[in-house]
Amino acid sequence: MDNTTGFSVEPPEAADAPSSESRRGFLKFAALTGAVVSMTANRALADGDIAFHAQDLSDEQLVDLFRTILKIRWHERTQADEMLSNPDYRGYNHFYAGQEAVASGVCATLRNSGPFDQIDVVYSSHRPSGHAIAKGVDIPRMCAENDFRATGLNGGYAAEMHLSDPDVGFIGADGMIGPSMPIATGSAFAFRARGSDQVSVVFGGDGTYATPHFHSALNNAKILDLPFIYVLENNLYHQYAHYTYSSPHKDIASAAAAYGIPSRVVDGQDVIQVYNAAKEAVDRARSGGGPSFIEAKTYRYYNHWGAPGAKAGELGAFGYDPLAITSFRPDREVRAWMQRDPVDIARRTLIEWGALDAAGAEAVEADVKAEIAAAFAWAAEQPLCTPEDGLEHVFTQGTVPARQFG
Amino acid sequence: MTQKSWMYSVLEAVQWEMQNDPKMIWIFELTPPVASTPGRPVINLETEFGRKRVVNTGIDENWMASCCLGASLAGSPSATYIPYQGALMPFQVIQNVAGKLRHMTGGRASMPVTWIIEMTGQTPGFAGQHSCYEEDSYYAHIPGVRTVVPSTPFDAKGMMHASLRSPDPVVFLYPAGLRTLVEDVPDEPYEVSLEKAAVRMEGSDLTIVSSGAGMPEVVKAAETLRDEGMGVEVVDLRVLKEMDTDTLVNSVAKTKRLLTVDQSYFTLCPGAEVIARVATNVDGAKYKRVAFPDAPPPASPEMFLWMRPDADKIAGAARGLV
Ligand SMILES: Cc1ncc(C[n+]2csc(CCOP(=O)(O)OP(=O)(O)O)c2C)c(N)n1
Ligand SMILES: [Mg+2]
């Protein structure tokens, strides 16, 4: 189940490169015959075991995928720059940069708009900004929330680790490691009980493997055949510990397979591969086929939390090892992963497929940058919260008494 | 004597106990048992005692707490450091197993286990699920478990020695807001009682009772009030279970006015118990209770800072009482 290494077959390249459609046709053929396809050294590795669903995407949908990846990337970079260079900026983040293809590929297979009882739901973690953007959360309001503004997505009560927007099925971020997984199976249970074809997706890190919740969620999802998808983003570390400190499995997906759940390991840097695996899982869940597990091998470019080790205007964080911890990630590992950047991989794939040319890709990126800059600018203008409002929303109605004055 | 932080003091006690009892174990999750202070050697339990006795585990606080309980039942003194995000994950095993075991077994179970459980929630913007000051109320409710909350590095070290040597299970709350506090702490081992409150300031007009991370703001308020001419007596509970009723009653019998201060939610906060114990023993006293409202702490600094008890609010409540 380890599809992340050992690709060697070179595709027929160069002069007679097929047009966009036939290119995708070729890929589909290669996938069906089980051939392993590598189009350039560092990207787009089709998994011969998964049907090549991405070939059915229109050029417009492909560009949308790319746009989502860019939105996340520029959100992260812009916020990191704010944190590093604007002393008035108060927000923070657990940056998702490096992992963009996972959220983008998965959410592109979901129903993200429409009546609440028809859209798919996503549960996220302490690292939610990428998942939120991919699910379609309003970015300016998310930026305002992350900066504790009264007009933010959640009125300034939530901030980064607790973002929630049920309107787009983003049930929300959970700052805790573990609890969201069984809860997400509960949504799936409701979908099955009421005969809906909705699916429930949870994103969790490699750190979730060790929690009791991981095992409880998978066991119950399997036993009850729930429309539940566990997307495990294995970015190799939980805080400062390598995942091998807490999991005996090289591929955590093999633990899910032991629960009888169809499991995939995908290259989380390649949005096409993520999309293919997610589409398969969503199709299975919608048609009553039960749960799936996807392990995306990926990497985060920043440190666990905030922007230590990062420089304004530059991507990634280096040279930060606060506690001199033995299992901490080395800088050269960060640099090596940055060679397989999800933005570059997606861009090159789309250009090769003729969905976009280089100038078109640049234009999309310029657009996205402007959109994100405007979102941060709007957020910065938003009003701060009213202190007394802290006593609201404890229950549906009314306020609780102030107690801090005695 | 050396200037030491709360955590350095605690690890120094743990290190000494581990050196002197090769059976003892330590489990941690993401906070390496490493501390340093100028003029003293760096403490690193993992490198000193090796990964057989000191283990960095996965994110599973229930297992960490259970493992230590099991180790203690098998005769190994044990301790673990539960980060605040998982502060209540071990609740079931502490409440329904450890707390009942000695009594249920007719006194036969011995549990030299210490769960160091982080408490936080004083950082504006970082509230919500990353705030857990209310855990003092939950753990203090459990019979059979000693729940302590040292507020100074000196007490932390002495109470850690006492906890590790105690055959009773101990919930040892660590108010992370006190991380930067340093004071002179002896290098030698010593014990501080797991049963006694401490009078931090003496006065005859008003008693203020608080604990843990509430203490610095209480002391600040008390100093302001003293400068205004009020005789303030400040009591640091230190121990939530078994609560030191005598010290509380003696103080309020003298001052006839009691103000309790908690970072915990109002309902059933430690101050509620303090007032109940005093009121049933002292006639004619007046009472006030300052606590966090019964609402989850919101992220917005504007809302959060207004809701959090601080020196100004404490002093205001005190003036209203005297
Ligand atoms: C129950 C619980 N225990 C501990 C924590 C502290 N914590 C926050 S993030 C994190 C690491 C999570 O690692 P992983 O699941 O791999 O996600 P990543 O940070 O790599 O995205 C930990 C231990 C927590 N949030 N919840
Ligand atoms: Mg991780």
Structure overview:
The complex is a heterodimer of chains A (406) and B (322). Chain A has 406 residues and is an alpha/beta fold. Chain A is built from twelve helices and ten strands. Chain A is globular. Chain B is of the alpha/beta class. In chain B, 37% of the residues lie in helices and 24% in strands. In chain B, β8 (146-148), α6 (153-165) and β9 form a beta-alpha-beta unit. Chain B is globular. The model of chain B has no long low-confidence stretch (mean pLDDT 96). Chains A and B meet through loops of A and β16, α10 and α11 of B. The structure holds thiamine diphosphate and magnesium ion. Thiamine diphosphate sits between chains A (126-127, 175-178, 205-208, 235, 237-239, 304) and B (30, 59, 83, 85-86, 89).
Helix and strand layout, with pairings?
The complex is a heterodimer of chains A (406) and B (322).
Chain A: H1 20-32, E1 37-40, E2 43-46, H2 59-85, H3 100-107, E3 121-123, H4 129-135, H5 139-146, E4 170-172, H6 180-193, E5 200-205, H7 212-223, E6 228-234, E7 237-238, E8 241-242, H8 253-258, E9 263-267, H9 271-286, E10 292-297, H10 331-338, H11 342-352, H12 358-380
Parallel strand pairs in A: 3-4, 3-5, 5-6, 6-10, 9-10
Antiparallel strand pairs in A: 1-2, 7-8
Helix pairs in contact in A: 2-3, 2-4, 2-11, 2-12, 3-4, 3-9, 5-12, 6-7
Chain B: E1 2-5, H1 6-20, E2 25-28, E3 34-37, E4 40-44, H2 45-49, E5 54-56, H3 61-73, E6 78-82, H4 91-104, E7 113-119, H5 135-140, E8 146-148, H6 153-165, E9 170-175, E10 182-185, E11 198-201, E12 206-210, H7 215-227, E13 232-236, E14 239-241, H8 245-255, E15 257-265, H9 270-279, E16 286-292, H10 301-307, H11 311-321
Parallel strand pairs in B: 2-5, 2-6, 6-7, 7-9, 8-9, 12-13, 12-15, 15-16
Antiparallel strand pairs in B: 1-10, 3-4, 8-14, 11-13
The complex binds thiamine diphosphate and magnesium ion.
